[in-house]
Design brief:
about 150 residues, alpha/beta, Nucleotidyltransferase, domain 5, 4 helices, about 25% strand, hydrolase, hydrolase activity, acting on ester bonds, nuclease activity, RNaseH-like_sf
Length: about 150
């Protein structure tokens, strides 16, 4: 079964999907929020459901000390709403510190323009989060924040 990774932003949500062997994460796109949180999360859950994942990994931006910032608390709350829409699927939180910066650096190093980065860096961030989760699972380590 596949795993979906998401990077929940205020305006955009990056989406990535694993292969069926759960070894590789691939960025698949960016979901644009329209401004109604509940409707947006329902539409996002519907999009996630199309991939038929067993697990959904949500990036959690912990502070440098490992605590929950205001943004992290919002993401915890939103992940609970998403979980209610995705009945029968596991939703897990996973530490995403620096994933957006890693995605931007990767895209710059591979020649992407600033304009391209605005539209796709969230999907790359989601793939970095998901790949780290997949690697931790393969190594048998739970990671800093494994369950949501």
């Amino acid at each position: 079964m596949r795993v979906v990774g998401i990077d929940l932003g205020d305006k955009r949500v990056g989406v990535a999907v694993s292969n069926s062997e759960r070894t590789i994460a691939v960025p698949t796109g960016v979901f644009l929020r329209k401004g109604n949180a509940r409707k947006d999360l329902k539409a996002l859950a519907d999009e996630i459901d199309d991939y038929d994942p067993e697990v959904v990994v949500v990036g959690l931006p912990l502070s440098l000390s490992g605590g929950l910032s205001a943004q992290a608390k919002r993401i915890v709350a939103e992940s609970k709403v998403i979980a209610r829409f995705l009945v029968g699927r596991s939703v897990e939180l996973f530490d995403e510190r620096y994933s957006s910066k890693q995605a931007e650096r990767y895209m710059r190093e591979t020649g992407h323009s600033s304009k391209t980065m605005r539209g796709t860096s969230d999907a790359y961030a989601a793939s970095i989060i998901l790949q780290a989760w997949l690697d931790n699972k393969a190594a048998g380590t739970p990671g800093p924040k494994d369950k949501g």
